[in-house]
Automatic annotation (TrEMBL):
Belongs to the bleomycin resistance protein family. This is Bleomycin resistance protein. Keywords: Antibiotic resistance. GO terms for biological process: response to antibiotic.
Length: 126
């Protein structure tokens, strides 16, 4: 049997519909950094990469790239500090709480302006 490949990382692609709202949510609110953006022509859909620590996301306005309403889980350290930073911004449409789950995690759940769900979680240590 051939040896399995070594997976180095995964880059989720999330659908977006509005460049301004995407940048406001991902860059201003969540604290991602813009790495690059691309359009084939000035009036064509935007495709961009944003990063937060080791997390890399691609956001796309292209119709066929992905489905709106997707969900991803993101393991982070220091969930409390992340949560405090989000609340300190007094975002008009997002005031997430922290939930302790039966599956032994603490989670902050967010929905972006396009219906994509991001679950930031930290495992509980016994």
């Amino acid at each position: 049997m051939p040896e399995a490949p070594t997976v180095l990382h995964v880059t989720p692609i999330l659908r977006m519909f509005d460049e301004y709202k995407a940048k406001q949510f991902y860059l201003d609110y969540l604290g991602f950094k813009l790495v690059w953006e691309h359009r084939f022509e000035p009036d064509m859909p935007l495709y961009m990469e944003v990063v937060l620590g080791a997390l890399k996301l691609h956001l796309s306005e292209h119709y066929g790239d992905c489905t709106p309403g997707s969900a991803i889980r993101i393991e982070i350290q220091n969930l409390d500090a992340f949560h405090t930073r989000l609340l300190s911004q007094q975002h008009a449409y997002s005031r997430p709480g922290i939930e302790t789950t039966p599956w032994q995690t603490r989670e902050v759940r967010l929905t972006d302006p396009f219906g994509n769900r991001l679950v930031f979680f930290e495992p509980l240590v016994n």
